[in-house]
Specification:
By secondary structure, the chain is of the alpha+beta class. It is about 20% helix and about 30% strand. Strands 1, 2, 3, 4, 5 and 6 form a six-stranded antiparallel β-sheet that branches.
Length: about 280
């Protein structure tokens, strides 16, 4: 059974290097929304699995395994398929590299252990999966599974929040009253869909900002809800400081105001917190 799946070894070897001690510590951490979105938003297969068996591969079969790790071939039942167009077989297998303990001993994977995996299918081998990253097998928890379901549901919707590739241009227009101003930031997206951010300042009112997915700006709209795909796309992609080229059309007088309004947005989004040690 092992021979065909050994073709996946090269993919595991290409994963970002990280020490076994780091990854062992990582396994004890609770992954944040951004960690799970990194893993699951683009994964073709997201599944809850229960281990039937785990075969430890020897040096001859795992020639590309990193120092301090042991490679396993996992044979597992699909408990629930969170994402997977066309379905998957009830039983799948895949390779995973796991860190050895402080004495260099391989970890034990017990029968009926449960995991969440983010993977791709192996062409022409319907029962084989390939993890999307070296750490895309995580211990199952109901909370993580529910978060992944929400991420997949949004990412698979008719118009999911687009992947942001940069900031196009920004400009600010004064209002009719002293201190009134509207600033807009136009973002670049992977699929060319329009998305803009607007900051509105009015005398005697709290500064408000909103996001628009489309050509029309709705003043009644607000910021994205935290721990949603739109929030993730913004908070985890936008640069901490507004790039200079976004101000190419702004005058010397307008630039400081635009930069201040960009800080309003970044403060409103809050940090994109991640716990994972290894990312690619």
């Amino acid at each position: 059974m092992k021979a065909p799946i050994l073709a996946l070894s090269a993919a595991l070897a290409a994963a970002s290097p990280v020490s076994a001690q780091q990854e062992s510590s990582q396994s004890l951490q609770i992954l944040n929304y951004a960690d799970l979105a990194d893993l699951g938003a683009g994964a073709p297969v997201v599944a809850h699995l229960r281990v039937r068996g785990a075969d430890r591969l020897g040096a001859r079969e795992a020639t590309t395994v990193r120092a301090g790790y042991t490679r396993f071939e996992i044979d597992a039942d699909v408990v629930a398929l969170i994402r997977g167009a066309g379905g998957t077989p009830a039983r799948v297998r895949y390779l995973v590299d796991l860190p050895n303990d402080s004495r260099g001993r391989p970890p034990r994977i017990t029968r009926r252990s449960e995991y969440l995996v983010m993977a791709t299918r192996v062409p022409s081998r319907p029962d084989e999966l390939r993890l999307v990253t070296a750490d895309a097998q995580i211990p199952f928890s109901a909370a993580a599974a529910e978060t992944l379901r929400g991420i997949v549901r949004e990412a698979s919707g008719a118009e999911p929040a687009p992947r942001i590739t940069g900031i196009g241009r920004a400009f600010s227009v004064p209002g009719n009253l002293p201190g009134e101003r509207e600033t807009q930031f136009f973002l670049l997206t992977a699929d060319q869909r329009p998305i803009s951010l607007t900051v509105l300042r009015r005398p005697g009112e709290q500064v408000r900002w909103s996001v628009a997915l489309g050509e029309i700006v709705d003043e009644g709209a607000g910021p994205p809800q935290r721990n949603t795909l739109l929030w993730y796309r913004l908070a985890c992609t936008l640069p901490a400081r507004l790039p200079a080229d976004a101000l190419s059309e702004a005058s010397a007088e307008e630039s400081p105001a635009i930069q201040a309004d960009y800080r309003v947005i970044m403060d409103g989004l809050g940090p994109c917190a991640r716990s994972r040690v290894s990312r690619r």
